[in-house]
Every structure is written in structure tokens, then in C-alpha cells.
Amino acid sequence: xxxxxxxxxxxxxxxxxxxxRNSLAAQQAFFLDYIQAQPGWTLVGIFADxxxxxxSTKRRPQFTEMIRRAMDGEINLILTKEVSRFARNxxxxxxxxxQLKSRGVGVRFLNDNIDTRDxxxxxxLTIMASVAQEESRKVSERTRWGQLQAMRRxxxxxxxxxYGYTLREGILTIELEQADVIKQIYRKxxxxxxxxxxxxxxxxxxxxxxxxxxxxSWSSTMVLRILRNEKYCGDLLQKKYxxxxxxxxxxxxxxxxxxxxxxxxxxxxxxxxxxxxxxxxELARRSAKHENQSRFSGRxxxxxxxxxxxxxxxxxxxxxRRANGDVYTRFVCRGHLDGVCSMRAVHGPVLLAVARHVxxxxxxxxxxxxxxxxxxxxxxxxxxNGSARELAQIRRELQRQVAxxxxxxxxxxxxxxxxxxxxxxxxxxxxxMARLHSRAxxxxxxxxxxxxxxxRFKEIRAFLERELRGGDAILDExxxxxxxxxxxxxxxxxxxxxxxxxxxxxxxxxxxxxVKIQACTPIGEHRTM
Length: 529
Fold this sequence. Notes:
There is one protein chain. With 529 residues, the chain is of the alpha+beta class. It is built from 15 helices and 19 strands. The strands form 6 sheets. It has a 5-stranded mixed β-sheet with strand order 2-1-3-4-5, with helices on both faces. Strands 12-16-17-18-19 form a 5-stranded mixed β-sheet. A 3-stranded antiparallel β-sheet has the order 13-14-15. Strand 17 and strand 18 form a beta hairpin. It is elongated and about 115 Å long. It starts with a strand and ends in a 7-residue tail after the last strand.
């Protein structure tokens, strides 16, 4: 029965640790000696997968190559030590051994004393494969329990892809160059009051490599992830993802399906806890502002933008109702209110006049320009719809390519295709799938940004319409900050490397009150570091 056979052997270990590598070498040596000792046997090859799970056959390249050659007639018999080495998925085990048997190829499990060429081989194999699958489940549970205990002790799990840190043997160590970028992001967000889009654009402009994409550009999503990641203040939250089952090893975001582990002050922080907490509060404030009122509301265009040139604190708006019902508005330095700063108060109409004057210097309040912008914005939201449609098309095409590849493999296994035709068609499918995956990944990275931009365009149209009716909504977008000095106002403009020093004063009282701009001087490029 076993004379003049072309024989291959398969061995596998599920981790790449040193002791397991030694086990793999021992298995290979055993099969080499065993096959060479059998009269009439010819060794085709010893196929070995290292560091790969046996619960699925799809991610074991050596196993797949061995099955392909066996189905192509190059192998008559496959040897493996036990069912658990061949596969721990009962369905895969039975399906593959049946396909091999249909081509005259047997599988012998030495330790289990099972040969699929025997009459009762499949019956016994079914029992052992079920036992192997159950053992895999138990091993998975024991492994997860062990990981859980290690997490509680503070061992960090995951790959070495945490921006700002290096992860080795479960320990986080600060990566100094990336840590400087993280500090810069927090400084831009908190001190300079810049948004995620602006920060991403500036980092890209400065040539700073983004996380995991050295040749790419920063996105607002990357910036927000850094601002929200608790690791940067020294805390650790584990089990952000969970594995659905031990067969597919599919990971999903943990939204309460499993208990998470939080360890405060776990490692050396990159930013202070105060800055991290302030960033979370500011993110929540901006999110609430975006949801509850238009960000282009002229009523609060100055919110968070007025700073004291003496002590650096922000100005707060004070309103007083006069006896005649008029409201008197003034801006006062918080340091002055605390008794530590002597900066003057600013009358509300003066501040508004200064901002409008700078706006006029930029020629951004022209109805003609606004009208042209509105015409251009009419087509911009289609970008989001087009991106979503393209992503849906890519996913449908990926499904078609997977089905096409499966049909090719089935046709080859059934003998309807030659090996050459199968290889050519599979290569074509895999090349197209790789192209589609690459395009889908780029779209998914940008989809959040596109969605945000689409919402932004809708709001822009709304505030431009109000601006045409004489509102002050555009001030919110154009005026980035106003620093109050004793004799002038220093106005910074969003997205432009120029500042204006404006001198202004109010004259008269009551209905005769007016603001005169005494001087307005552009003072050149300025970047806050």
C-alpha cells in the first residue's frame, strides 16, 4: 500500500518563541528520518508554518502550498504528527481531507494512528478533529485568562505602533522625537486655540512624518486620536478591542462587551495630567458648541480669542444694562479681575470695530467675493457622496473578487482547471484585491475628514448667506486671536502668516458714540511655537 509513494510532511508551532522553534526543528528532523527510512518512499518536502494558529487554514502559507501541490498530483501521502497540528477547525479538517482523498491523496496522523485511506479513517478523524477544536477553545480561554492577569499587573499588550512610545516586553518607553511632536500638538490646541484640521495642516507643512505613514500627510483624525489617548498623561486603558472567537480571531472595538482595565499613573507621561484633562474639556466644549449652535454664530465670534498682552490671561465679556435699557458691553482681563494685572478694559464696540477693520483690509467682506464663494461651494458636498459611493463600490468589488477566487480554487480542486490556469487566475484576483484594499484604506482614512468637511461646507454656506445680510459671522472664521495691549490691538488672522497692529478709540457718548481707527499696520509673518 505504501510502496512507491511521493511523501510530504507537515509540522506547525503556534508561537515563534525559542522553545517552540526548537520544537519545530525537532519535528522536521523526525519526519526527515522517518520518511527516508521507508522503502520506496520519495521525499517531496517538509512543509512548516512557524508562529501561526491552526484554527484557520487561510493564513498558513506553507500548508496552502502543500495542499496545492498535492491536488496537482505531486504528492501521494501527507504525514503529520497529530490532528491538532494539521488543523484545529473540524470543518476545515474534514473538508480538506475529503478533497485530498478525491484526488487519491491520503493523510496519516502518526500519534493519533489515523489514516484517511482506511475505511474508518474519516469517522475516527471526525472524533479527533472535534477534540482538537475543543482543546483549541480551552487553550484560548487559558491564554486569555493569563493575558488578563498580566494586564492587571500592568503588562502592556499590543504591537509597537503607539506614537510617542516604544513598546518592548510589555513596557512603554518614551520616543523623544515623537514626544516633542505630541507636546507641540497639545500646545497648538490649548495655548494657540487651533483646531485639529489646522494642526494637521501645519504638521504636514513642516514636514513632520505622521504616525505609521512616514511618507503621507497628517489628518485631523490623527490629531484627535493623540489628544484623546490617555497614554500620553501616563494612564493605561487595556482591552479597547476584544476577540470574537478562537476560530476566526476577529477583533472588534470593545464598547462594553468585555470589562476594560484602567491603570492610572502606569508609565512616564509625555504631557501633564492637567493639560490632558484640559484638552478633554476643550474637546467636549467644542463638540457641544458644534452641536448646539453654529460655529459661525456672529454672537460669540470673539469666544476664547481675546488675550491680555500683559499677563497672558483671557478676557471675559461683561454686560451692564443701563437705566434706558441699553446694554453696555466691555471686555475685562481675568488677571485684572483677580487683582494681578493692570490691563485696561475694552469697550465692546471698539473690539468689534477693530475686527471689522482688519476684515476690510483683507477684502473678505465683499459681497462679490462671498457670492463667488457660494457658487463654488454648491458642488463641494458631492465629494463626500462620491467618496462613500466609491468605497461601497470597492467593497462590492472585493466581495466579487473573493467569490471569483473561491470559484477558481473549487474548479481546480474539481479537476476542471490546470495548475497553470489556476495560478494565473488566482494571481489576477489577488492583484486586483490588493489594489482595491489599498484604495479602500486610503478612502477610509480620509472618510472622516471628508464627512467633517461636508458639514463644514454646509455651515459655510449658511454663514455666507447671513454675511450677505450684514452679519458678523465671518469674523469667527477669519479672526484667530486679538491680543490687547495698553495702546493697541494685535490681531492674528487664521491661515495667513500676517498680523495687524491696530490703534482705535471710542469717541462721544450715547447715540453720538463712534469708534475711530487711528492706525492699522501689518507687521509681517508670525508663527507661534
